[in-house]
Amino acid sequence: MAFADVILPLAVPGRFTFRIPTGSDVRPGMRVAVPFGRGGKLYGGLVRGVHEDAPATAAREILSVIDEAPIVTEEQFLLWERIAEHYLCTLGEVMIAALPGQLTLSSETRIIVNPFIADEPRRADRSGALIDALVEREALSMKEAGELLGLKDPMPAIKRLIDEGVVIVEEELREAWKPRTVTYVKLSAAAQSEEALHQWFDRLEKKAPKQLHLLMRYVELSRCMSDAPFEVEKNKLLHLSNSSPAALKPLVEKGLFELYEREAGVPAPAALGKDAPRLSAAQAEALSNVREGLRTKEVALLRGVTSSGKTELYTTLIDEAVHDGGQVLYLLPEIALTAQIIERLRARFGERIAVYHSRMAPHERAALWMRMARGESAPPIIVGARSALFLPYKDLRLVVVDEEHDPSYKQHEPAPRYHARDMAIVLASLHRAKTLLGSATPSLESRYNAQSGKYAYAELLTRYGDVAMPAISIVDLRDAARRKQMRGHFSQPLIDAIDAALKKREQAILFQNRRGYVPVWQCESCAWVPHCDHCDVSLTYHKKLHQLRCHYCGRTYPPPTQCGQCGSNRLRMIGFGTEKVEEELAEVFPEARIARMDQDTVRGRQALDRILTGFAQGAIDILVGTQMVTKGLDFDQVSTVGILSADSLMRFPDFRAHERAFQLMAQVAGRSGRRDKPGNVIIQAYEARHPILDLVVRHDVEGFHQRELEHRRAHGYPPFMRVLALSLKHRSEERVAAAAGDLATVLRERLGERVLGPDIPAVAWVKDRHLRNLLVKLRRSAHHEEKLFVRECIDRVFAQPEHRAVQLMADVDPM
Ligand code: ADP
Ligand code: ZN
Ligand code: ZN
């Protein structure tokens, strides 16, 4: 008799063996419908292996085989297993994260009629009745669909309907990725000849000087834009010619200009398939160092300063890898903020690129997966955020991890809490592909691996076109306050710098790492601050909505009118967030057009696009934001960057605080002074002499790395040790404390002083649950073995009845 080991889309640990019905074709990588648990619920599990070893207890039988051919490859399974092992989670959890929602089926799966297809003629068979029911009731669970179809196991039938695109699996409603469109201006066909243009000039010169000015700017701009001749973005034209839409309108009506829209990121047809750029001497040298390094090593780290042209190096290598049929994965930390990179890659590679990320329409993700799994022609270059790791690659040759230091590569919730950069390296090795990590501010882990010879290392230390690195200066806030030189939260040098930029029609970015208006209200007499009723944190004031909000659980409260402790009505605000900065800025620069970019203003994707487009086109002069503004924004007109309070970055209570602070400051500084404008960066700080600031000012990435590595070595932190964070949660503080205490005791039996805690975290009560944290340091050379020991300890402690209800979260390599 034959058996199949099946992975179920559930968080339960263990492997599950089912009997294969005689005569059915069951191979690894196919989905099968199997009953699981006492309720007899159905799951679409994935066959991991087929064998003849009967399990000890009687195995239940597979009800049906869902796929005709495997949809998951051996390499994918191996990657999943590495993830489950390294990050202490179950294979089922990895399966849920990896497989597009459309391909994960269970009794509970809810199906709906595909809203993307037009009405079909009614089907005569039972599926017709099912579709009628779906139309009427909107959604049905797999179980209900089974009852309607009169099938005990409806999965194969439903799967066929999914394949045909008639129904889709209902997924958590996400805001779908809608491409934004940009309006362009070009000369109408009749106006394109030299002679016609002259006539227009003559006509406008006498009657309409403003329109003439607009036309002249258009001619200038369209000449210098070699990729897309005669085409200029409408808003850019209006901004750079200082014209109003009223000046453009008659020119369109009279037939001089044409307006049209195109999806942003899709280049004009003429610009597609752009030739390879000519690399500068410095770029060519760095590229040759990368190539040389990758001849012998699996991974290369490229440190290239901001605006050095790392992307051009990546594209050259990508081009080579796909030249003879290979595949490439290009990973980005956040898709939403990197439209510009995708645009550049599209210009170069056109249709050979597919974008893959969790905000795409669900059926499109599934469709790309299936094309790749079947080996049908799919684009060879996948650009994506971390979930793109999980696609069924067949001939992967190169993985590029852009901005490899970015903490967004780590998944926080739910498990698997994996680091996409680290797993990209595993993925590449499974395919014998090479990995290129790139950053202006590499992570200490990667820098250390390069230093110890595990990775190859190359540097690109000049900006493209020999543009100077931005000039960074520090403003001592203590001193400025003493001399009464502050206006709100702005020092005079910062105000002067912004002023100078605005006068030259250049743009500025201001970075403040807290959102909201003023984080907290405080009683002047007794120092009371309002707290969330369900979490142990003070509430943040959001002025626009005039409410207090908990940034941990999202609850909102009306602002207090009097102190909750002493009843005094003298309340004042302390601290400041982006919303406050925006407001103060408007007072200092009443003429400037200001926008804010943080989690509050970019809830929806469209809002983010509006801000980015507005800034790119010059409709915004100053952009204020949280760390979002440090990422992937390359705008030519930004000359000035202000960091409002460096102290709050450096004081974060975490061993990575200095690394983060350095990276954030260096990255946001790098947003200034691209192309021909020299950049000017002002950092405000109370602790103006902090050594980290000095390293930022000197652009001394290498100096920072060596200083911080020494520190990490001395205190036994990554990259010298691996860290495993354990977080325990329960409604009762006593119970969570007891469980954490017992766990620490058991862990210490073998790991001794390498177990830190249990600690009461700074925010110790979230969503009505008390928290306790433990930190375990694992030796790099023995982390597998030590993790097994940790797993045993966890099993042992949580098997005790009094601890069973305590929730545990394990985070390996926390960020
Ligand atoms: P990085 O990613 O290192 O910050 P980019 O790749 O964005 O730098 O390059 C900065 C700017 O210089 C971009 O506008 C890019 O188009 C331009 N650039 C870089 N290298 C070249 C090249 N070899 N030829 C033409 N333009 C280049
Ligand atoms: Zn709360
Ligand atoms: Zn009070």
Give the strand order, joined by hyphens, for the main sheet.
14-15-13-16-17-12-18
Number of helices: 25
Total strands: the figure is: 36
- Ligands bound, unique: adenosine-5'-diphosphate, zinc ion
Radius of gyration of CA atoms, rounded to a whole number:
29 Å
Report the sheet with the most strands, covering strand number, pairing sense and barrel closure: 7 strands, parallel
Give structural notes.
The chain has 815 residues and is of the alpha/beta class. The protein contains 25 helices and 36 strands. It has a seven-stranded parallel sheet, sandwiched between helices. Strands 19-31-30-22-29-28 form a six-stranded parallel sheet, sandwiched between helices. Helix 6 runs antiparallel to helix 7. The longest helix is centred in the last third of the chain and has 19 residues, at 733-751. Mean pLDDT is 88; it is low at 173-179. It binds adenosine-5'-diphosphate (ADP) and zinc ion (2 copies). Adenosine-5'-diphosphate (ADP) binds at residues 277-280, 283, 304, 306-312, 464, 634. One zinc ion is lined by residues 532, 534-535, 550, 552-553, 555.
